[in-house]
Amino acid sequence: MTPMPFGVRRLLFFALAASSLALSANGIEPGRRPNIVFIFADDMAYQAVGAYGDPRMLLDTPNFDRVAKEGIRFDRCLVPNSICGPARASVITGKYSHMNGFYNNTNSRFDGSQTTFPKLLQKAGYQTAVVGKWHLGSDPTGFDYWNILPGQGIYYDPPMFEMGKRSKREGYVTDVITDLSLDWLKNRDRSKPFLLMCQHKAPHRRWSPAVRHLGHDGDRKYPEPPTLFDDYAGRGLAERDQDMTIMGTMNDDDLKLVDCPEHLDPEELKAWNAYYQPRNEAFRKANLKGADLVRWKYNRYMHDYLACVKAVDESVGRVLKYLDDEGLADDTLVIVTSDQGFYLGEHGWFDKRWIFEESLKTPMLARWPGVIAPGRTDDHIVSNIDFASTFLEIAGVDAPDDLQGRSLVPVLRGEAPADWRKSFYYEYYEYPTPHHVRPHYGVVTDRYKLVRFEATADLDSWELFDLKTDPLELKNVYDDPANAGVVDELKRELAKLRRDLRAPAQPPREAFGNRPLDEAIKKP
Ligand code: CA
After folding, report:
1. What's the gap in Å between 486 CA and the centre of ligand 1?
2. Nearest-angstrom CA–CA distance, 352 and 22
3. Is the bond preceding residue 452 a cis peptide, omega within 30 degrees?
4. pLDDT at residue 9 tops 90
5. Which end of the chain is more exposed for a tag (fewer CB within 10 A), N or C?
6. How far is the CA of 461 from the centre of ligand 1 (A)?
7. ∠ CA 12-16-22 to the nearest 5 degrees?
8. CA of 144 to the centre of ligand 1 (A)
9. Tens-place pLDDT, residues 101-135
10. Which has the closest alpha carbon to 51: 387, 355, 376, 411?
C-alpha cells in the first residue's frame, strides 16, 4: 500500500474526529489498540537533547528531535524519586516508591508479584517485551519476552539474561539492546498489538562511548553552566555535604585516566587507546589544579557522556526507521524518555537524586500520529508515574483504582484538563552511599519548591526555592518573612499530597536496610 502523505492523514483524522460516531470519548478509535514503543534511556539529561534547547547547544540529536517535531515535547515531566531502580519501579507500577516498596538501588528488590501495567497489557492480548536495563533485582514479570542486563550492565560485550538464561553479546551495549529489540519486533506475532520497552544502559556512569564516537566533538571546549563553580552559599548543610562533585567525586575511572577496564577486541582497544592515551599524557604533563582541573574534567565528562547520548539517538533513529519501513508508525505510540534527569556540571555536579531541576525533570517526547498534533510543547506537570495509566487507557484496559498517576491521553490530544495536578510530591531515600545526598521530600509547583530534609542528629531543616526569582535554585528563602504565607500554603499542600498519596509519616526502615535513618547514618 502506498503510504498516505502526512498532511492527508491529518486531514482525514480531523475529518474523522469531527464525527462523534467515529471515536470514543477519549478520542481513540474503538478497537484501534495501538502499539507502544517505550524507549527509556538511563540518566539522560534533557540538557543533552537538542529539542530542549539548552543554551550550551551540547549535541545534535536529530532522532530525538524528530520525535519532538512529529509529536510533543513535555517541559515539566517530573520524577517521583530521582534514581534508577525506583524510577523503573514507578514506571511499571504507576506508584510512588513508598507504595511499590522499591526505595533505592542499594537494598531494595522489586516484588514482581505486584500488579504492573505490562502484566495487564499482556492479559489484554498485547505481546510484551523488555530489552536492556531492568535493575530491579528480581526477574521481570508480565513479559512474553525479556532479555536484560544483569544489574547496571556494562558497556562493551555485555552479558545478558535472556528469559533467565545467561548469554554474552558482542558489541556496544546500546547497539546490542537496539538489535535485540528490533529482532523481537521482526519475530513477533503480527496478529497482536505490542508493547516494547527498549531500555538503555546509556548514558549511565561510567559514560563509555562506542568506539566509533570517540572524538565525535573534535576536542570541543564546552560552554560551562553558570553554576559549575557553585559554592553552595545560600543553602544548607545538605547541599554542602553531598559527594557528587566533578571536582571531588568524579574519579580516574570515570575520566578514562586508567586502562580500559572493560572488554574490547584488539582493534577497538587500539582505537580507544589512540583517543585517550595522548590526551591523558598531555593532561598529566599540564599538572592542572583548582578551576583548571575542574574545567578539564568537565570537558572530558561532556565528551564521554554526549558520545553515549549520540548512540542512544542513533538507536531512536533505527527504531523509528523500522516502524516506517513496516508501515507501523501511524499505529504506534512512541515515547522517548529517561528514568530521571542528570547534572551536566550544574552546581558543580554529576549524578542525580535531588528535588532540584536537573535531576527532578526528565526529557519526555511522544509521537502518535493522528492523536498528537505535530510540533507541540506542553508544560503540564506530568510524571513517569503517569505511563501506566496512559498505556492502560490506550489499550482499552481498566486501570486499577490504586494507581497514583493519571492518564496522559487528554494532554497528548492537546486538551488542558481543568483538574490537572498543579503540584507534585517528591521523595528521595538512598543514603549515605553512594553520594551522600540527604533523604528528603517536598512539594513542587510551577513556581516554588518546598523541601523537607528528613530530621537526623545533625540536620533538621526546610528549604524554599522560588524558581521565578531564582531559576538556578541558589538561594533558600524559607526564612524570609516575606514568604511566610507561601510557606504556610505549601506546607498545607505538602501535607495534603502526603495524605492523598499515603506517604509514610516517618522515613521507612526498609529504605535504610531495616533500621532507623539515624542508625543508617552512623553505620553506613
Ligand atoms: Ca538512572
Report:
1. 33
2. 45
3. no
4. no
5. N
6. 27
7. 145
8. 25
9. 999 998 899 999 999 999 999 999 999 999 999 99
10. 376
Percent of the chain with pLDDT over 90: 89
Q: Which residue, chain included where needed, has cell 529517561?
A: 338
Q: What is the 3-state secondary structure (H, E, C) of 303-348?
A: HHHHHHHHHHHHHHHHHHHHHHHCCCHHHEEEEEEECCCCCCCHHH
- Cα(483) to centroid(ligand 1), Å: 34
Contact present, 384 and 79 (Cβ < 8 Å): yes
CA of 485 to the centre of ligand 1 (A): 36
Q: Are strands 424-428 and 440-444 parallel, antiparallel or unpaired?
A: antiparallel
Q: What is the DSSP letter of 173?
A: H
Averaged pLDDT, 368-396: 97
Bridge-based pairing state of the strands 35-41 and 332-338:
parallel
* DSSP H helical ranges for 223-265: 237-241
In this predicted structure, what is the pLDDT of residue 29? 63
Distance 135 CA to ligand 1 centre (A): 10
Q: Map residue 385 onto helix, strand or coil.
A: helix
| Residue 15 alpha carbon to ligand 1 centre in Å | 42
Grid cell of 188 as nine digits:
513477533
Average pLDDT on 204-211 reads: 98
Q: Could you tell me the three cell numbers for 308?
A: 553515549
Read off the pTM. Answer: 0.94
Provide Rg for the chain, Cα atoms.
23
221 CA from centroid of ligand 1 (Å): 26
Q: What is the Cα–Cα distance from 311 to 314, expressed in whole angstroms?
A: 5
